[in-house]
Each structure stands twice: as C-alpha cells, then as structure tokens.
Design a protein that fits this description.
By secondary structure, the chain is mainly β. 0% of the residues lie in helices and 53% in strands. The protein contains no helices and 11 strands. β5 and β6 form a beta hairpin.
Length: 115
C-alpha cells in the first residue's frame, strides 16, 4: 500500500523559512515524479512545484526564487525548502506522487505564516 506522509509544517514569521518533507513508501520512488500542492480553505488545490524522476524542476510563478524542491531517492523523500515566506503562503501543503496514470496524495501539513 502506498503512503505519502508530509511533515515540517509550522508557525513561522513572515520572511522566515521552513523545510517541508514528504516520505514515500509502498512505491518505486525513483520512478515517480513528485510535486507539492497547497490548498486554502474553500479554494481549489493549487500547484506549487514539481520534480521529475530525473530531477528536472518546475515552479508556479508565485514561489519562484523563494521555494526549492528536491528529492532523495535513497531515503524516498521529497523536500520543499521555503524561504522568504509570506502570509499568503499560509495553507495546507500536500505531497503528490505521479507515475503514468497513477497519482497518490499525502494528507497534508499545515503552514502558517504570521507575525
């Protein structure tokens, strides 16, 4: 059974940093593209960043230059380093694994950016 478990969400001041982590089990991790999404209450889930199986990365415009996605294929982990955080980054962040037509989601980790 596939499990994706996020961690690292916390309360942080504006312009602060956090590193989110997602650990995957039950799948061939190195074959999967991994991505981060976020969803605020009563809003649609939005794409944040992704990294392919070979390490190519992509970001939504609002986080370019502030967030960095990376992966560790030995430890089956994907990370999201978030710097220069803003209040509008406050929401629940979800990890997603994709391979062909298969998509798996974690249950999310809450990030709050507030003074």
């Amino acid at each position: 059974q596939v499990h994706l478990v996020e961690s690292g969400g916390y309360l942080v001041h504006p312009v602060g940093s956090l590193r989110l982590a997602c650990v995957a089990s039950g799948l061939n991790f190195r074959m999967f593209a991994m991505s981060w999404y976020r969803q605020a209450p009563e809003k649609e889930r939005e794409y944040v960043a992704s990294i392919t199986a070979v390490g190519s990365t992509n970001y939504t415009d609002s986080v370019k230059g502030r967030f960095t996605i990376s992966r560790d294929n030995i430890r089956n982990r994907v990370y999201l380093q978030m710097n220069s955080l803003k209040p509008e980054d406050t929401t629940v962040y979800y990890c997603k694994g994709t391979y062909a037509t298969r998509n798996y989601w974690g249950k999310g980790t809450q990030v709050i950016v507030s003074s």
